[in-house]
Amino acid sequence: MPIEIRELVIKVKVEEKMNTSQELLDMDEVRKSITSICKKEVKKQLEKHKER
Q1: Against a cut of 0.85, is the pTM above it?
Q2: Which DSSP string corresponds to 29-40?
Q3: pLDDT digits (tens, 9 = 90+) for 1-51
């Protein structure tokens, strides 16, 4: 039976940029982070499904 994730919550904190020497957002890191969170949620749902 497939697992359906109906909601993906992405929380961010938006701040005014104060320092021009700050590093730029690394999209690869963002992608890895989101993928990791999704994998954890899928595993959690699989475990929950097995308990039923």
Answers
A1: no
A2: HHHHHHHHHHHH
A3: 676 777 777 777 777 766 555 566 678 888 888 889 888 988 888 888 786
CA dihedral 33, 10, 16, 19 (to 10 degrees): 0
Closest by CA position to 10, among listed 34, 44, 31 = 34
* Contact partners, residue 10, CB within 8 Å, separation at least 6: 34
Cα gap 5→29, rounded to integer Å: 22
45 in Cβ contact with 2 (< 8 Å): no
Distance in angstroms (rounded) separating the CA atoms of residues 41 and 9: 11
